[in-house]
Amino acid sequence: NVNADRLWQRIQGLHEIGATGEGGVTRFSFTAEERTVKDIVSGFMRDAGLVVHEDAVGNLIGRREGLNPGAKVVLVGSHLDSVPNGGDFDGPLGVLAAIEAVAALEAAGIRTKHPIEVVAFTDEEGARFRFGMIGSRGIAGILSDADVDTHRDGNGITIREAMQAAGFDASGMSSAARERDAVKGYIELHIEQGKVLEQALQPVGIVSGIAGPLWLKFTLHGDAGHAGTTPMKGRRDALSATAEILLVIEQEAGLMKRTVGTVGQLQVHPGGVNIIPGRVEFTLDLRDVDVTVRDEVEQKIITKAQTICEERGILLQVDTLQRVAPVTCDEQLQGLMKEAATEFGLDAPIVVSGAGHDGMQFADKWPVGMLFARSKNGVSHHPDEYTSKEDCALAANVLLGTIFRFAN
Amino acid sequence: NVNADRLWQRIQGLHEIGATGEGGVTRFSFTAEERTVKDIVSGFMRDAGLVVHEDAVGNLIGRREGLNPGAKVVLVGSHLDSVPNGGDFDGPLGVLAAIEAVAALEAAGIRTKHPIEVVAFTDEEGARFRFGMIGSRGIAGILSDADVDTHRDGNGITIREAMQAAGFDASGMSSAARERDAVKGYIELHIEQGKVLEQALQPVGIVSGIAGPLWLKFTLHGDAGHAGTTPMKGRRDALSATAEILLVIEQEAGLMKRTVGTVGQLQVHPGGVNIIPGRVEFTLDLRDVDVTVRDEVEQKIITKAQTICEERGILLQVDTLQRVAPVTCDEQLQGLMKEAATEFGLDAPIVVSGAGHDGMQFADKWPVGMLFARSKNGVSHHPDEYTSKEDCALAANVLLGTIFRFAN
Ligand SMILES: NC(=O)NCCC(=O)O
Ligand SMILES: NC(=O)NCCC(=O)O
Questions:
Q1: CA distance B126 to chain A (A)
Q2: Are B42 and B52 in contact (CB under 8 A)?
Q3: What is the pTM for the complete model shown?
Q4: What pLDDT, in 10s, does the model give residues B100-120?
């Protein structure tokens, strides 16, 4: 069994790295906060007997050799970065629980056939560059030069530049990629971030599929002008057009059963109280487990947005930030998770993930399995995010049981 | 007559102080740009024979003595600050034309009975603190401790703190105030920022009244959450509620003949692509020459906004940033302006100002008169703001004729 107290203390302890004044944490990739949290967690990895290194895209990796040195590696992991003012569990639980799992194997003197690597992936959230799962894309071998040169943070810094500033050379990033037959599969424990487990009164769930996040950037070009002297008639106000589009997004997503559409970032230019907005930029995060449904909603939104903009004399530009396909989780791994859960007396239900996860980048190459721990009120990306100590420990034990089975 | 070439060169020359990469200028109060532009203009004032000082709120003042030393002073002025990415004429024309007017009196060896003071007022636009006409409020004696301690810029710096950093001590600001019987009246030349003069084919207009800007700040408190895992139903998205309110503002202002309503600033918190907006702040700039109409529209907007927020479970807070009453210009000064215009062969029409001006702060205490110079396409608060060299010179000449009459 895992050490429940230590797991809980470590989750609590990481809170102070990037703590905001508003109860949450902000830990963006390639920042001082990320460096600090990685240094602390690499200490935890070493304590658990792991051999630690960082790969070319900044993934923190702790390796435990298997009985069979040439055997495929079992990857287990999650992430340490956060959204702005996010919670303590989204990411850290999965990394710290994986470390506890190998520590438990170590304590029990159990060596698995396959080597195990615990990975803390670089920038899963996409909070800094509006482009996420950077570390897992690197390991999958699909992080491109275009990716690291196109996406910029709020200060205009590209991923490549941010990597450089943090001591990573993007020109060597292909060395992070793993061959198809070098990896046996990927297992992750994460908080559910939804309410299904809570409503089912179950601490742990087994994920069958993950919704695919599509991130778009809308730019509306209107005409700035004086707020006091420009009559309402004839204005080309980029923000008024935006308001209409926001309501279309809410409505179109709401018409479907499981589609969600969110505008989380919005900037007004030039941004003076007495200046009519000449330009507005905003992001759309659109998801569904069914990619056809999601892309149909996308098309409806864009068509209606174009009509709105035409009627108002506004120029509309829509750019894709990331378009991730939904993923189906591996059936064998689901079966092993079921066995492990049963061993701990749990009747782990099958759930679907509305949130994206690093495993999405691996699904074309390797079997992917995910466990969810129950979230309080389904709240996430918010300081109130919470999973109880008991649920964390139970989920970590099911993770341990799954790793033990899969790595043998 | 004024020196038309020098006036034009000086207007062009100031462009480089605070020039943005986008064709406009950004000159906020109590910044290095403001310091530079004031230093340059104080040189122009000295060249015109003025005795220059800065008062306790940072107004730059050049004084020309009158024949009668104890006589009331005639104030003439405008401002040198700008909105973000604003134009070259809004403000500078009035200051530089006033300097040209006294330079012309000097060149002609004419001394008026009343002393004349040319004033470049501190922060007319309100761009930095969302609170404008700071210098003229100081001279009117109505700038309060609450004003300088409440209003903050985008970095949380109060007016008092910004003054301090620029070398001004707000605790002594009452020394900037002028006694009621120390001032004969206030005259300003400004660009129209509207299309009335252009459509009337007239270079110069006489202002009869000024619309009163009401600036409100709306804060909507909803609930942040994960964009991927939170179903559309049951969300308390502060930005969706905002979108509805923005359309109400556009509609309610549009229903009235002359009301204008503009949302120029909007911030989304926490501002992650995959986070439902938990809080939105935006400003409303609402104006009418008829204060009753304006305040009725305000009430309609707030009532509808409250209903929208209630239906969505959003907490709404509305704060007043500034509530300036509309102003009627002095009839005697309008008469003198008419005479001066006629002298230059102009049939200056009566116009109304949709934009606010420093004179608004004086109207309860002293006669206020304003001249407008024709604006190209009515564009202002925009890099395309333009008034021709000929129109600038004609307007400056009418200003000179008005000052000459009023100061004698
Ligand atoms: N699990 C999680 O919150 N992932 C972040 C990426 C996303 O789903 O927006
Ligand atoms: N004239 C002018 O643009 N004044 C700025 C204050 C305002 O009207 O918003």
A1: 8
A2: yes
A3: 0.88
A4: 999 999 999 999 999 999 999
